[in-house]
Structures are given as structure tokens and as C-alpha cells.
Sequence to fold (248 residues):
Amino acid sequence: MANDIIIQTEQLTKRFGDFIAVDHISFDVHKGEIFGFLGANGAGKTTAMRMLCGLSLPTSGKATIAGFDIYKKTEAIKRSIGYMSQKFSLYEDLTVKENIRFYAGIYGMSNKYIKDKTALLLQQLHLEDEADKLVGSLPLGWKQKLAFSVAIFHEPQIVFLDEPTGGVDPVTRREFWNLIYEASAKGITVFVTTHYMDEAEYCNRVSIMVDGRIDALDTPVALKENFSAASMDEVFLQLARKATRNDS
Ligand SMILES: Nc1ncnc2c1ncn2[C@@H]1O[C@H](COP(=O)(O)OP(=O)(O)OP(=O)(O)O)[C@@H](O)[C@H]1O
Fold:
């Protein structure tokens, strides 16, 4: 079990001045796992995720991503991961095809590889007829699916998703999650933050952050059992009620 660990953190901490945004968090994620990273607004999820992606240095503690130390190997980490967030994803004023080409180009893939894989991807997403349309003209749910597919185009070991399905209905979210399951089945580890509790139920394991700390971490079934809760919503509310930060 231990040697399939792909994300490992130990007492990982980030301070901004006197404020402890991420407070000594320790957890492991396994290869191919779908790991939900939950917490109320301001709990510290984005700050933690930025450290794991090599975008921000911790104040203290340790972490390895795909075996790379987050203090020393940030470039290697960036090559091993994919990233998608609501705020940073596709260029609205480029076409579907141009977006794919642009991101694939960053990873130095050959033209032939990009061309073949793009054709396959457009077919899988049923976007063949939209290939030359501006991304800005697509419905949000389609954009999200495309953004996810682009984030894993270079076949990273881990993909980090920061609230990837914001603003769409449960059916569209479910379709998005089918893509997540496919990626996980191929061995890609999925690390996902969400505010939607239906999505929490879809994860293999879920951690819940409160005021910078991880207060609970287990499978959705075990969490519901431990908190005597009928749903993940109830588990989340029981923990979020304890929060003293008010960041909404
Ligand atoms: N650069 C910064 N300087 C000072 N404080 C910061 C900085 N970045 C984040 N914070 C604070 O750290 C805390 C954690 O923020 P973070 O964005 O990580 O939370 P979050 O769990 O991702 O919240 P949300 O769900 O709203 O995105 C918040 O109180 C935020 O105001």
C-alpha cells in the first residue's frame, strides 16, 4: 500500500504574517484515487492546493508530489500534474482546437501526436462540430469538460481540480464526473475541491478542512457512519459549524 502513495504531506503549514492559513496538515493520497478536498469558504483549500502544485512555498512541513519534494522540485512537479480551476482554464477567445493545441504545445508534444489525440478527444466529447468555434460561445458544462480534458491531455500522474463544476446543474456535474472516473481508471490521481456534496459522495475518500486543519478524512460511507449522518451534507455541516473563520 505504502509504495503507491502519490501525494504525501506531513505537518504542511502556510502562514501569511501571523495568520495560519494551512495549519499542520498531514495526509496521503494513493495512485488512481479520487480524493475530495472539502472545507467551508476560507478553510485553506486553495492555499494548500497551491503548495501541492508547486505554485507557493510552504512555511513549514513536508510534502512530496509524484515523489518530488515541493521545496526543491517544483518544475518536475508542474510537469507531472494537470490543473484546472474555475478561475484559470481555457481562453474564451481561442477556438476549441486552438485551446487544445496551445496547452499541448506547452508540454512539447509532437505535432502528429497532438493532431491524433485532438481528433480522438473531440470525438469522445462529441465536440467535432464545435472544433472551430470560439470557446466563449460554448455552454459552461461543455467548457468544463473540455478544460478537464485539456488538463489531462499530457497524461499527468495527478490532476488538481479546484471547484471544477461551479455553476452547473447536478446532471451536468454527473457527466463531468464520468470523465473523472475514466481518468482515475487509467491511473490518474484526482485531487478535487468542491462545495457540492453530491460530488463528495462520488469520491473514494474525502477530507474536510476547518480553519486550516483537516478535521476528518475517510470514505464517504465511513464519514457518514462516524458522524451518525444520513448524508455528506450533514457531515459537512456538523464540521463547518465549528469554523471560526468567516470568509464568505
Ligand atoms: N495571499 C494571502 N495573504 C493573506 N491571507 C490570505 C492569502 N491567501 C489566502 N489568505 C487567507 O487564507 C485563508 C484561506 O484561504 P483559501 O483561499 O485557501 O481558502 P479556501 O478554503 O480555498 O476558500 P474558498 O472555498 O472560498 O476558495 C483565508 O482566510 C484567506 O483570506
